[in-house]
Amino acid sequence: MNNFNDITVDVFDEKTLGLFLKKIDFSKLNGLIPAVAQDYFSKEILMLAFMNEESLRKTVETGYAHYFSRSRNKLWKKGETSGHTQHIKEIFFDCDNDSILLEVIQKGPACHTGHKTCFYSKINNRLPVNSGNINESEIDNKDAACDKEKFYSLKLLYDLIAGRKGSDPEKSYVAKLLNEGPEKIGKKLQEESLEVILSAVGSDGDKDKIIYECADLMFFYIVMLIYSGIDFFNVIDELKKREGVSGLDEKKSR
Questions:
Q1: What is the pTM of this model?
Q2: For residue 164, is pLDDT > 60?
Q3: Which CA distances in Å does 87 have to 62, 90, 107, 108, 219?
Q4: Residue 55: which residues within 8 A CB-CB, separation 6 or more?
Q5: What's the rounded Cα separation, in Å, for the pair 109 and 105?
């Protein structure tokens, strides 16, 4: 039998899938197991749901997360109505073989409230030590419309910028840049690259200046990717190919 430690769903065949499903213990929670979804890139915990054997099989076979709804007593695909799907990259299970960790590429927010993650409420640091009582004032649970996500990533930035692609150029700088084409975007990239260099060379240790200019540069790089129809993951995949390869050797191979 295969010695499973983690599962990459891209290489599953029916025999391997059968062996995997036999290894998972569905007996402890009336045929269900907890399934934690984690962002593949940031490692942020997105949500907790439950799976039965059918939903886990469907997840592996399709490459998209399927769960079992205890309230509706039925299988459901994450994002089937909202479009906020979870593309499976890897599956892990724990030492007792009774819970699953899914590493996913999340499209849009994971939570039905519009938050990136379902875990946006927290007990703040006023919680008394050795107390079993939690006051309402000690829980941060803000409405999605007024709560700004504390988590940020290049992928999130890419999605935010890409979301403005079809906006009115008179109201959106991103839409205006995309309409003006690669020459205009390229010119901004040149300008910002020079600004980064100048700030690093002549800022006398002013890190805030370097950070500011680097943020501008990254913004225009992402705009160029979007104009060129290149997904953020294409760049990530290229970087992953170079992992473990000497930079000098990589340059020689060009």
A1: 0.57
A2: yes
A3: 9, 9, 8, 12, 26
A4: 66, 67, 68, 75
A5: 11
